[in-house]
Amino acid sequence: MAQMGFYINQSLCSGCKACTVACKDKKDLEVGLNFRRVYAHEEGAYIQKGAAIVQQIKAFYFSVSCNHCTKPACVPICPTGAIVKRKEDGITVIDQDKCAGTKFCVSACPYGAPQYNEKTFKTNKCDFCLDLQAKGEDPVCVSTCIMRAIECGPIEELRQKYGTIDEVKGMPSAAITNPNLVITPHRDA
User: Which of 59, 128, 37 is nearest to 91 (CA)?
Assistant: First the structure.
């Protein structure tokens, strides 16, 4: 099977956070833990031109989770080998039985994907909803997005269909980990 990845159509994302809430609910995550997050990027100002006030504000939203990177920063830094990149689909997973809760992966990931749980003293993250995929269903973030701004599938197919942009304004450099992500940027991103 090919490397799996996500497609985000940033120009459609309304910032509703349905993907975040659905993931949080499915994974029964504690307060403060979110495997998928929606960020707002805002810039600009109101400028006075004579008697008029002109707005030059730009804003957009971006939904992000684990990008199941080609060179994940979390894998080599894990001292117990709890984090592995599966050979069959490239999905990066954390074995909860092996996780020692060192938080090294939390510090290493430029996308903030690994989340440390203060109650279990372990780290976890998006696992691409492997349980749903085993039943032929999409990850919950994909099926819940009311704007249909999130898709998933083999990354090469997503790149052929949507292009190769994997980094936009406000994100870390894609060169760090080679995320398996394709983005249709918002016009201001």
Answer: 128
